[in-house]
Design brief:
globular; Carbamate kinase; VC0802-like; 15 helices
């Protein structure tokens, strides 16, 4: 039986993106005396890309027998680690570590290459802390879909018991081979370890969670929110926390916080329930710009909506598209898609429009650009008398027209769609109504 520990901390890629941030992260662990640390690969910092993305590119070049992978390895991995993450007093030999990996890199599988980013960072963080590096190949066992199995619990407990440890968060052992966890794997790893050790779980990000994106104006930190509210935020913004990790934490009744460098102690406290007196009707505002509205009209859905949507999403995946939000009626499906998805697709918009129309058998497939979405996330907002009218009125006072006002069945969010020209004015009107005491 493992002796419960006080705190498990998981660091996101932004908190490790350079030497300064890594040092800040290490100091947070020391100050809070966390005994278990989960790390991501280094994030993008302006000079370098996300390390995971660079390793994916290298793995693809190796798979294609393209010798340019060696140049990419030196420029983006070797140079970054040797120039940004070598400390005078470190015991870890980073150059030796890199040379060993490089020696047989072209013989490794895709997953074995991509997981190196988190493996490197975990070993560097362990060195700076004087903690034990724990190889997830020895304690995290995955099924064929990359999900953590129950047999991992005893192995993780054994690895943690009586030690201060650092683990990577993105891979495990599947039949004796390295396998990557699904998207958001390091968050899922973090809450799993917290569950095993019966500890509090704290996710540290570079900027923390604010009531809205600070690029739109001064934004206070969000201090308290329910699992449902944060779940809505996570659905709209992948940087909040992975929804699967959040659901796991709620199901296992974990004490969970999301903190920042600026406020590493308290941050956002996530609770099962909160009263309206603990906050306004809106907890946070989420914004998405540069969206394209894909409308499939005049449908005659013989199959269930769920089956049709599943079939549609498989087709969209072929074009590397994903939706921000989707709405289905008996005769129409509408999806809001980030414009960058269309820009990154291997196919033209006209080709996608033609192919979807042919395969779905619909009469109308249209793309309409210039969309933006503002989402108000709060406590049972539609269950409160006058809430929708309050925010609609705020928009109306500015003389703005709403392209769409949409609300999901769970009544946790109100969505307002605007054209791109009205977006900023609409945001400030809704922000003023939601947070009247916040500085402009």
């Amino acid at each position: 039986m493992i002796i419960p520990i006080e705190l498990t901390i998981k660091f996101g890629g932004g908190t490790l993106k350079n030497k300064e941030n890594l040092t800040n992260s290490v100091n947070i662990v020391k100050d809070q005396k966390a005994k278990c640390v989960i790390v991501s690969a280094a994030g993008a910092d302006g000079k370098y890309n996300r390390m995971t993305e660079d390793l994916k590119e290298i793995a693809q070049l190796i798979k294609n027998d393209d010798d340019n992978w060696t140049n990419l390895w030196k420029e983006r991995i070797y140079n970054r680690l040797t120039q940004e993450y070598v400390f005078e007093d470190m015991k870890l030999n980073v150059i030796s570590l890199l040379n060993k990996a490089h020696g047989d890199l072209n013989k490794r599988t895709y997953d074995e290459i991509v997981h190196l980013g988190e493996d490197f960072m975990a070993k560097i963080v362990a060195d700076r802390l004087g903690y034990t590096f724990v190889d997830t190949m020895n304690c995290v066992y995955l099924d064929d879909d990359g999900h953590i199995t129950t047999m991992s619990y005893e192995a993780i407990a054994s690895a943690v018991d009586g030690k201060n440890i650092v683990m990577s968060g993105f891979s495990g052992n599947c039949g004796g081979k390295v396998k990557l966890l699904p998207s958001g794997g390091s968050d899922i790893m973090g809450v799993t370890v917290a569950d095993v050790t019966k500890s509090r779980f704290k996710r540290i990000t570079e900027t923390g969670i604010r009531v809205h994106d600070p690029k739109y104006g001064v934004a206070n930190f969000l201090k308290i929110a329910t699992f449902a509210e944060v779940g809505q935020m996570a659905t709209l913004d992948e940087h909040v926390i992975h929804p699967a990790a959040l659901h796991f934490a709620e199901d296992h009744e974990l004490h969970i916080q999301i903190c920042s460098f600026e406020d590493p102690v308290d941050g956002l406290r996530i609770v099962p329930k909160r009263s309206r007196t603990q906050g306004a009707d809106v907890a946070a505002i989420s914004c998405q710009e540069e969206l394209v509205l894909l409308t499939i009209s005049k449908l005659d859905l013989q199959q269930s909506k769920a089956d049709f949507q599943s079939s549609l999403y498989r087709k969209l995946k072929k074009y590397r598209l994903h939706e921000v939000l989707s709405f289905t009626s008996k005769t129409q499906v509408q999806l809001l898609i980030p414009k960058r998805c269309l820009d990154d697709s291997d196919y033209s918009q006209g080709h996608i429009q033609s192919q979807l129309g042919r395969t779905l058998g619909s009469d109308w497939i249209t793309f309409k650009s210039g969309w933006t979405l503002i989402s108000l996330i709060g406590i049972d907002m539609l269950g409160q008398c006058g809430v929708f009218e309050k925010y609609s009125s705020a928009i109306g006072k500015e003389g703005l027209s709403i392209n769409a006002s949409l609300s999901p069945p769970d009544e946790g969010v109100i969505y307002f769609g605007f054209n791109e020209h009205d977006f900023k004015k609409a945001f400030h009107a809704l922000r003023g109504a939601a947070f009247p005491k916040e500085k402009k």
